[in-house]
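hi got a favour to ask and not much time before my train. below you get a single protein, a line of residues and a line of whole numbers that encode the local backbone shape. could you go over both lines and see whether the tokens make sense for that sequence. a few lines back from you is plenty, here it is:
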Amino acid sequence: MMSYSRSYVEDIRQDTDGGIYYKYGYFKAPNEYFVQIGVLADKIEGFIGAFEIQRLFEEMEKDKLVSHICFVDDKFTIVGSTDNKLIGRKIINEEAKTAIIENKEYGYIDKFYDENLYEVFVPIYYNNDKIGTLLMGGHSFQDTKHLITKVSLIGIATLLIILGIVLYAMFSTHDKNKKINKTSIL
């Protein structure tokens, strides 16, 4: 080892013996011995990739457009999620599993933490190869029901106000017409 650094981590490079790609790192001990470790590049990419997916999900969740986002592998296991409690769980809905196998989009209403919400499964491709399935859960129907109730009440109040204005206009016109008719008869 020619470096004076106490530790060093190299970029991924090809092994001189077998041609396999590794990421090497070493740590020097005080007695001039050192430990060198090589990790298969594929393992590192897979390990880092999981963090990238998790970070991407967390960024998507910030927009609050969905309740949760998960990445499902081909064995129906959730391997990444904005809800850490879901990681490692299996998809049990048979129609969703069939959609995952057949690389089709699928959606259904599911019970999630005691609330009904719509979940959508979408296959994800990278370089024309399927790498997994994205699962997105919408907000609960409770939020939608509250919104519908609010909009309905505002609509009813608006209609009542308009009806009141129309009735007032009708009665005032009717009263004015009565006065005009009385004065024209005299």
Q: What stands out?
A: The CA atoms of residues 83 and 119 lie 14 Å apart. The chain has a mean pLDDT of 80. The chain has three domains: 1-63, 64-139, 141-186. Helices lie at 41-62, 94-101, 141-185.
